[in-house]
Q: What sequence folds into this?
């Protein structure tokens, strides 16, 4: 039996809100839409809860790409969590870019509970893009809870 | 310099303030150290020169400094801005501090209220120094890989001493994320990821609040240009959300407010 040489399969981590995107991803499944299995969903109460530190930790633990997704503006279960999150991301992206983190690996989206198809499209698209970029070796890692030894200058 | 000493003597002699927080000669000619002057006679030790850069507003939150009573504070532009920002964050009561603003020509302006500080700060020039601006633009213009390598190299020198935090007038949280260990957000030891996380977290927690005093990078024993991270965020917060921290006692924190039509072209 022959196996094709497997292409690089990126690890994606998606931080999603409980009320919209998580339900949206659920709908993708119940609608029997197939999408890339590379994504690991992490469900949080609200995009407002998604601390920027979580994104760094995901990359540090070996993620090649990160997706952050929640309710569309105006649809937040807690009224304004996503508005606050949006401001934080705007600043955070600027800082990430300045310190040389590859913004092509950080994706933001609004996916509602009714947008199962959009979720599948999003994950597939991000997967293809990250696949083209390859593993994120440039980002410092802390695998198995252990830090990499500091490089001797 | 004499005008400053004279004003300090008067304030202390009249009992208007219990102490004057200013600068005294440091261990080297090109250094200045903070000093608390409590009697009129001690005011002769006060100095003013280009090395008096540390933001003295940093000391105001410390319990032992609070216990001193009413203070006079020798202030630069960024010190005044720090006072206003602290007041906006409900960390400084009006009248607790008399600011002694020293202009470039050495003239001393006494500012007993926050309203007086607001009025003066509004008249001062704004923006970064030319050197800071150039360095910022130079790094921002580097290709991604080089930018990454530059900061990786800089952060590799970080020894996690947290002098940047200690020197910052707005890093006053009694419990900092660095000390949180359930979970441990930022490792105690100095490793590449932890150093990156710490420096990003520090800058992010000051986003929209930083008053651009540069005390963080002045305090850094490794000479890392931490202030550039803050400048970048300050600029983004200003252009995107109109944040002008340190110009008013009105609370207007960019990350605690929003507009429904904030920019979002990067979100699909």
A:
């Amino acid at each position: 039996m022959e196996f094709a040489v497997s292409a690089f399969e990126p690890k994606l981590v998606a931080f999603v809100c409980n009320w919209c995107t998580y339900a949206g991803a659920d709908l993708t499944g119940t609608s029997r839409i197939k999408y890339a299995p590379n994504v690991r969903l992490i469900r949080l109460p609200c995009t407002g809860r998604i601390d920027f530190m979580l994104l760094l930790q995901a990359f540090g633990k070996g993620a090649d790409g990160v997706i952050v997704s929640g309710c569309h503006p105006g649809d937040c279960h807690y009224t304004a969590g996503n508005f606050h999150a949006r401001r934080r991301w705007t600043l955070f992206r600027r800082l990430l870019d300045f310190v040389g983190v590859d913004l092509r690996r950080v994706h933001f989206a609004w996916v509602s509970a009714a947008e199962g198809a959009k979720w599948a499209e999003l994950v597939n698209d991000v997967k293809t893009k990250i696949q083209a970029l390859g593993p994120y070796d440039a980002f410092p890692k802390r695998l198995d809870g252990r830090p990499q030894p500091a490089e001797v200058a | 310099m004499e005008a400053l000493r004279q004003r300090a003597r008067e304030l202390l002699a009249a009992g208007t303030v219990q102490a004057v927080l200013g600068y005294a000669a440091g261990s080297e000619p090109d250094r200045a150290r903070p000093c608390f002057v409590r009697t009129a006679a001690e005011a002769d030790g006060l100095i003013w020169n280009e090395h008096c850069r540390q933001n003295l507003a940093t000391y105001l939150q410390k319990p032992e400094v609070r216990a001193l009573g009413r203070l006079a504070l020798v202030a630069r532009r960024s010190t005044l801005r720090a006072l206003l920002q602290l007041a906006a964050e409900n960390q400084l009561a009006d009248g607790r501090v008399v600011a002694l603003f020293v202009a470039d020509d050495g003239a001393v302006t006494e500012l007993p209220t926050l309203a007086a500080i607001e009025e003066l700060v509004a008249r001062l020039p704004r923006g970064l120094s030319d050197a800071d601006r150039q360095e910022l633009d130079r790094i921002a213009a580097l290709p991604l890989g080089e930018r990454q390598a530059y900061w990786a190299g800089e952060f590799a020198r970080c020894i996690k001493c947290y002098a940047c935090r200690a020197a910052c007038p707005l890093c006053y949280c009694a419990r900092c994320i660095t000390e949180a260990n359930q979970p441990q957000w930022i490792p105690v030891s100095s490793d590449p990821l932890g150093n990156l996380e710490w420096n990003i977290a520090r800058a992010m927690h000051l986003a929209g609040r930083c008053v651009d005093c540069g005390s963080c990078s002045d305090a850094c024993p490794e000479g890392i240009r931490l202030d550039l991270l803050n400048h970048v965020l300050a600029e983004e917060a200003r252009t995107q959300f109109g944040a002008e921290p340190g110009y008013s006692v009105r609370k207007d924190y960019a990350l605690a407010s929003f507009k429904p039509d904030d920019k979002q072209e990067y979100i699909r």
Observations:
- Chain B has a mean pLDDT of 93.
- The CA atoms of residues 49 and 180 of chain B lie 39 Å apart.
- Chain B touches chain A through 53 residues (CB under 8 Å).
- Residues 226-241 of chain B form the longest helix (16 residues).
